[in-house]
C-alpha cells in the first residue's frame, strides 16, 4: 500500500466532484432552504477559516461579529439578547434545553403543532422529553384555543410554534401563543429559522397579517442566517428574551481561556459568524426587505403559472414557498421525474406533494424551466 500523499490526485478528484455538483447559480436547486452565499461572506469565511468560534479570548472578533448580528437582526424582532449557533437544529435543541433548565418541577413535556420541524422530535429524543403534537392541517396555523387546551391538559415546560413551517411555510400565531405561554408560565420557543428574515418585511409590505416579534410571553426565537440571510453555512441565531437565559446555555470548560463554552458545539467555525456579520452589514435591512419582496413575487408568479396547468394542484404560497402536486403521478413519482431532469425539489409528505422554496438565488427563468419540465412530464404543450 502506497502511503505517500498525492496532491495531484486530490486536485483531480476535486475538479471531477465540482463538475457533478449542482450549484445555486444554475437554477437547479429549487427545494432547499439554502442559497448561494454573498461574495463578501465567502471572502470573510476564507479569511477567518482558521478561527475557533469557541474561543472569543484569542479571537475577540467572534464576539464582535455576534454582537453585530444580535443587535442588527434583533432590531427587526424587538430582541436584545442571543447566541450564535450552527443552524436551526442546534438553536431549537438549545432553546428546549434552556426551557427545561429554567422550568424544573413542571412535567417533562413539550407541546407543539404536528407541523413542527423534526429537530423538535430530535431534541425531545435527546433530552428524554415527551413530545405531544397537536394535529393540524399542514396548510393552516395552529388554533390558539386548541393550543391553550393542550397546555392546560399536559402542563408542558415548553411550547414550540413555527414562523414558516418546513413543508408549507405556514406562520403560527406567535402573539397569541405568547399570551398563552405568559398566562401559564410556559417557556415558548418560536422556530423562525426560515421565516425570521422574511416575515417582518412581508408583514410591513402587506403580504402577511402576522408579524414576528419578541412579544410578551415569547422566550426564544431562532433565525437562520444561512437561509434568507445569504450567509455561508453554518449560521443561526437563537434570540432570548432575557440575558440570564444565556447562562443556562453555557458549560464549564476549565481548560479554555475563558473557562466556559456557550452553545452545544465545542470547536466551531468562527469564520461562519464573522461571515454572517459581514453579509448582514453589506446587505442591510433594506436589502433583505427587497429580497423578501422579490422572492414573494416570484413565488406568486410560480403559483399563477402552475395553477394554469390542468394536471397540477398548486397551493397559494404564504411565504415564498410553493407546494404543488400532480393529479396523475404520486409525489414520489413526480419527484423522481424532476430529479431525472436535474431539477432538485424537496418533498412535503404531509400534503403528499412537492415544494419549491424561492430563495434569493431563484429567478423567474429558473421557475420557467421547472414549469416547462412539468408540462413535458404531463404531456402538456
Characterize this entry briefly.
With 381 residues, the chain is of the alpha/beta class. The protein has helices at 7-19, 39-47, 61-77, 88-102, 118-127, 144-154, 174-184, 199-204, 244-247, 270-307, 331-340, 364-377, and strands at residues 81-85, 109-113, 130-134, 158-162, 187-191, 220-224, 236-240, 250-252, 260-262, 312-315, 321-326, 346-348, 353-357.
How many structurally independent domains?
A: 2
The strand count comes to 13
CATH architecture identity of the largest domain: 3-Layer(aba) Sandwich
* Sheet with most strands: strand arrangement: 1-7-6-5-4-2-3
Explain the layout of strands and helices.
Layout: H1 7-19, H2 39-47, H3 61-77, E1 81-85, H4 88-102, E2 109-113, H5 118-127, E3 130-134, H6 144-154, E4 158-162, H7 174-184, E5 187-191, H8 199-204, E6 220-224, E7 236-240, H9 244-247, E8 250-252, E9 260-262, H10 270-307, E10 312-315, E11 321-326, H11 331-340, E12 346-348, E13 353-357, H12 364-377
Parallel strand pairs: 2-3, 2-4, 4-5, 5-6
Antiparallel strand pairs: 1-7, 6-7, 8-9, 10-11, 11-13, 12-13
